[in-house]
Please model this.
Amino acid sequence: MKPTVAKEGSMIQQKEMIADHFHKLARAHEEGKKVVYTFVPGNLTELMLAFEALPVHPEINALQAGMRKLSGQYIAEAERAGHSEDVCTYVKCDIGMMLKGNIGPTGEKLPEPDLLLLSYTGCFTFMKWFELLRERYDCPVAMLHVPYQGDGDITPDMVEYVVAQLKTEIIPKLEQVTGREVDEARLAALLANSARAEEDLVAVLQSAKHRPSPIDAYFGGVYYIGPLFTAFRGTEAAVGYYQTLRREVEERLAKGEGPITPEGQLEEERYRLVVEGPPNWTHFREFWKMFYDEGAVVVASTYTKVGGVYDRGFRHDPARPLETLAEYCLGCYTNLNLPARVGMIADYVRDYEADGFLINSIKSCNSFSAGQLVILRQVEERCGRPGAFIETDLVDPRYFSAANVKTRLESYFQMLSQKGAKGAEVAAQ
Amino acid sequence: MSAADIVERCERLVADLDFGSVREWKAQQPGRRAVGFLPVYVPREIPWAAGVLPVGILGADDQLEIVRGDACFQSYICHFPRSVIELGLSGRLDVLDGAIFPSTCDVIRNLSGIWKLSFPGKYARYFDVPQNFDPAVGGKFYRGLLRELVDDMRRLSGAPASDDDLRASIRTYNANRALVRELYDLRAAQPWRAPTSECYVLLRAGMLLAPDEHSQLVRQYLRAAREEERPVRDNARVVLSGVFCEQPPLDLIRVLERSGCYIVDDDFMLVNRWLGSEVPEQGDPIAALCEAYLASTDETASRFVRDEAVKGAQLVETVRARGAEGVIFAAPSFCDPALLERPMLQAALERAGIGYTAFKYAENTGQLQPIREQAGTFADTIKLWGAA
Model:
């Protein structure tokens, strides 16, 4: 018998939202809806929704395939088709899934895109990914080049450049594909909804400053960011979801309860951690269990900022629709330079009173991974807390060595305990 | 000077990981500055207009033991940034007064941040060339970037870098590019006269020398190469693709030639050839550099190709124009741009009926025998059956 997995109301609500979205996608073309494939970082969800277009996120398809244990065969399929073993496994999983019929998580076939909206934000691979998809689909590509924050700032020239591309490239292509003109009032209303949901998400993420933390901001966090980072930002459904989520978290906070794990509420917070890097999806539960079995709670993470760095103050502003979309794209976590990433992680360690920080280095993600060993040393120097480094992959099951990861984590937790992690001291008493 | 003498000088320059030629150039006049740049493209005209020597940072080949570089990068990151860090942390790059990191890939992008963290007092610029080629959009953004770079170089050197200086620099580099094109044309026409192992070090020397000095060297080589008789071999004519960033060891290039291949085109050091056309030498120099960039049709892995029908067309055209009989894809291990690009280029070759073979390398690859056998088999296939 499978063990019962503890689920909160918001989780069930989110599951229903996602299932509903995939059902809509399955019927999209027969109902005359247009489908836009796009990426999570720097996504223009409100703009797509203003055109009544339905977004599909290939990274989300890949991670879901990873969680459903399908990614291994998809990657093998892509490698048989000539893709190198060295490159991003999200890309190969997506291409393999396409070659195998493009069946989504609800068992329904995903529709082909009417537009590939290439938001080139913080990841070079995105550009090649859509060049590869373009060869398979007969549809236009709209390219949005989002400049990198090389000097750690968003400059007026960058905002102007992105806005100009929205006006001359993205909106005209959306108009051409959907046959509609941009509905500015609807766009503003969607952006206002986004800001409301973002406010609630930030409250949820920052609840982890309390002891014990009522949330896990990495393993739980990936569920919390789901609606806002994907197809639902700007919708009433997302606003409702984040209200529910915030209420649940605040209730746990008031009761002094810890986060909900797949095996129920965590009773004892022994270690507070900050995590840098995406999770592994093929062994997500097993990976999480390695933490909660030891009483380790992630109080802040960088991965939950790939679709927007809201906890640093950014909110979508309906009064400046295109400028706010540009600033959003420019501000995503992987568009930050390394010094800014170091600063953010060190701030998290301090602000969330973490005992240490962990880097989960992903084999196939150069955008995240190149430089993480330098980040490790820099953050240790700045905050005086020990860091740990493990290596896994996004969706390639060949690169998750459970025994190695577990051994490293156990050693790390032991070290934190010896260094006097507050939670561990309380537990020992 | 014979071709062999020129090549020997170039080999010495390239093998000198202490950048002695740059140190000498700086020592000739107090206050001179030099700035490093990484692949693929930076407008070298701008530093040179300010009297700053642009110096290509192209790794350490197989000549340097990597220790500190390996401490910065996981095993699944390409080799190139390791040797850049090793060169930097060992003090070999101290001769440079800063570095420019173009938007080639995520690794070079993040390397710019490592540089900032490792050398906080040094100039570092991430140079984000636009992927939007509309003059009013990407062009406007790029003109701003170019002006910022001019300002940076003025601050670095204290020189005015006036419009006249910029136009003079454009003329200098136009002349250099024309000579590089002449060299490529000679090699394609008579590859036995200008083997790639020689052309390569000649071009690498251009990443270290002042442009006029390099132009003079290329002229001398062209003259010598045309005059000297060398045996003509029954080699297969191939285009080498994928070598635009991390450089293969020189021995790997020699091995490809010894295996029976004449390399008649390649994508080494594209900074020489990125701007397909001459940069206008009159008028606003910033506008001229911008227009040349936007108008360039050069298709490289680090550039978004808007038109699907064009993807791979340049490689096919190069094969035909150079009379090549096949393509060798040589990609650095873990190089996302080259390896993600490869299936699309291979598909274009297949549609055009052009054969290819593919392998991976690292700048310190030592096991060359398997590559020699693979390239030799490819060349034999071309020779025996007319097409691979």
In short: Chain B has three domains: 1-16+162-232, 32-160, 234-388. Chain B has a mean pLDDT of 96. Chain B is about 50% helix and 10% strand.
